[in-house]
Amino acid sequence: MSEAKVELQLTTRNQVAVLAIKGRLDAVRVGSVREEIGQLPEKGHAKVVLDLTDLEWIDSSGVGALVVLYKNARSKGGEVKVANLQRQPKEIFRLLRLETAFEIFDTVDAAVAKLGG
User: Fold this and answer.
1) Fold annotation for 17-114
2) Whole-model pTM above 0.85?
């Protein structure tokens, strides 16, 4: 059985960072990307859209990394939006009521537009 990993791809659209997260964001894999995710606002990306189209799985450790990003973005006057929430991650967001913190969109384009991009 091959070990799935988490991959990040950062692009920008009109001053909005779009972070595509692919794979599994869980306790085993989150350590390798936690700092990179959380430090985006300090690197000039306070407006962030999380593209979760290819996020297969998230656990409390992964949610924790996203919450750190959310708090850091807010402290810099920014916001974090979520797009393309699918499968198990969608259920976790629903169960944890994360939509009260993260506004969720069906598309990246809609999320970017909401942030003024």
Assistant:
1) Transcription Regulator spoIIAA (3.30.750)
2) yes
